Amino acid sequence: MELSIINTFTEQAFRGNPAAVCFLSDEKESSWMQIVAKEINLPTTAFIGFLNGEYHLRWFTPSTEIPICGHGTLASSFFLWEKGFVDKDKSITFHTKSGVLKAHLIDGWVQLQFPAIIEENVVAPELLIKALGVEPVYVGKSRLDYLVEVESEEIVRNLNPNIDLIAQLPVRGVIVTSLSNANEFDFVSRFFSPAQGIIEDYVNGSSHCCLGPYWKNKLHKTDFTAYQASERGGIIKVKVLDDTIFLSGKSITFFEGKLTV
Question: 52: pLDDT confidence band, cut at 50, 70 and 90?
Answer without folding.
Answer: confident
